[in-house]
Specification:
11 helices; Spore Coat Polysaccharide Biosynthesis Protein SpsA, Chain A; globular; 2 domains; alpha/beta
Length: 348
């Protein structure tokens, strides 16, 4: 219906389901899966991780929307799958991820969103990147759509999807020579929905900022914030096409519009927070701002010119994202106020 090919079981040309070399010692990888409103999907993410064929995993599901005593049903289902359950009532995916990281012990931490399902060989490919290059602080993966059945799913994939490159990319201080927008170029890093961090690098950065991300007024921005902080620390991110995962896109049009607005809110909140932390960064941001705004609206999906309805929806999504940019500062103030209240009330 949408002129796309089913992707079930298909690896993109140039990518591979498993790494090229397997002669390395596989480290323990801690898998942290935060969940709130899509707990059934979180169970699917656990099943996929267990089926990926990696021998040394510890999997922790962090319930970010528990009842007063946790969610007995979710705990039981998670434990049936051989994973652990942990309740974190303080709202926000950043807090949930940080809590999960502290509760696990692996030298590497894979953060998987609840709507992510990794494919076989995913952890091997990620582990190999760390094993072959000790300077790598974070590895991101190839993410393909789990479904392209609705207009919303197709528009999201063509506007924000991460299947546009099958080349391995190494992002470090030299990257600025080929991309003047670096380190603020989110598309270069890859998706934050399934990233793996070297624990020493993650701890050195202090984890995700609790003022950003889903579940906060800022709505997003936590992934780019952490990537940028790693880059400014002199760290390295590798994007590998050998680690393939599936992402369940928003199937509903109104949900997609809200998601796009959230991207804008989170981006401007993240930029403002960067300036608050280090005022000198305002000059770097202002220097890159015109190019960044131009790039924000430059990526055009492959839609037929005659498809007026699709083009109208595309323009609406772009307006939603740009409109969201205006709300970032106020959202950051609300997030900071809520965080201070939670800290002052001793909310655990």
């Amino acid at each position: 219906r949408h002129g796309v090919v089913r992707l079930d079981g298909v690896t993109p040309p140039g990518a591979a389901a498993t790494p090229a070399h397997t002669g390395f010692e596989r480290p323990l990888i801690s898998v942290v899966i935060p969940t709130a409103h899509r707990k059934q999907q979180a169970l699917g993410s656990v099943r996929a991780a267990k089926a990926a064929g990696y021998p040394r995993l510890e999997i922790l599901v962090v319930d970010n929307l528990p009842g007063p005593d946790g969610d007995a049903w979710l705990r039981a289902e998670v434990e049936k799958l051989g994973a652990r359950y942990l309740a974190e009532p303080r709202k926000g995916v950043s807090i949930a991820r940080n809590t999960g990281a502290k509760a696990t012990s692996g030298d590497f931490i894979a953060f998987l969103d609840e709507n992510i399902s990794v494919e076989k060989g995913w952890f091997d490919a990620v582990a190999e990147e760390f094993a072959t290059d000790p300077e790598v602080g974070c590895v991101t993966a190839m993410v393909l759509p789990a479904s392209l059945e609705t207009d919303a799913e197709v528009l999201y994939e063509r506007l924000k999807g991460y299947s546009h490159t099958v080349r391995r990319q190494r992002l470090d201080r030299r990257t600025v020579r080929e991309d003047p927008l670096y380190p603020l170029s989110l598309a270069r890093y890859g998706p934050g929905s399934c990233t793996t961090w070297r624990r020493t690098a993650f701890d050195a950065l202090g984890g995700y900022d609790p003022l950003l991300g889903a579940g906060t007024p800022a709505m997003s921005g936590e992934d780019l914030d952490l990537f940028v902080r790693l880059a400014r620390m002199g760290g390295t991110v590798v994007h590998t096409p050998h680690a393939v995962a599936r992402h369940t896109h928003r199937a509903d049009w109104l949900e997609l519009r809200e998601q796009m607005r959230g991207y804008g809110v989170g981006l401007s909140a993240m930029l403002l927070l960067s300036v608050v932390r280090r005022p000198v960064t305002v000059f770097s941001i202002l220097r890159r701002l015109p190019r960044g705004v131009a790039r924000l609206g430059a990526r055009t999906p492959e839609l037929p010119l005659s498809d007026r309805a699709a083009r109208s929806r595309l323009r609406q999504l772009r307006r939603d994202e740009r409109y969201g940019l205006l709300g970032g500062p106020a959202a950051l103030v609300r997030a900071a106020s809520r965080h201070r209240f939670d800290a002052g009330s001793g909310h655990r």
